[in-house]
Amino acid sequence: QVQLVESGGGAVQAGGSLRLSCAVSGRTFSTNTLAWFRQAPGKEREFVAYIRGSGISTRYADSVKGRFTISRDNAKNTVYLQMNSLKPEDTAVYYCAASYSSSPYLYEYHYWGQGTQVTVSS
To answer: Are 13 and 87 in contact (CB under 8 A)?
Structure first.
């Protein structure tokens, strides 16, 4: 069983930065692919970024490439999402998720956190 708890959300003005954290419990943390997804009001949940167990391989959605950085600290069982140059369209609930597959697809992720709200004002 894998449990995930996000933190670090909040309200920020456009152009600002936030760092989200996700604490992960479970014996296979270092082998899981960990990802961030987000869901804006009235929209479907969408992929943001993932990082493989090694911490070397990452993938980003085009909408956040160059602005967001995903990283992980296997010693602390934590994955991070550094978000810079935030835009109002980044406003959403951000979810951390874990999978045994490296994938941008929602259905590949079987473990989810409860989400943390990010609000970006113009």
So the answer is: no
Helix (H, G, I), strand (E, B) or coil at 31: helix
Q: Which residues pair with 88 in a beta bridge?
A: none
Of 78, 91, 95, 97, nearest in space to 122 by CA: 91
Collapse the DSSP code of 30 into the 3-class scheme (helix H, G, I; strand E, B; otherwise coil) and give the result: helix
Give pLDDT tens digits for 35-82. 999 999 999 999 999 999 888 899 999 999 999 999 999 889 999 999
d(CA 112, CA 34): 10
Contact 88/77 with Cβ under 8 angstroms? no
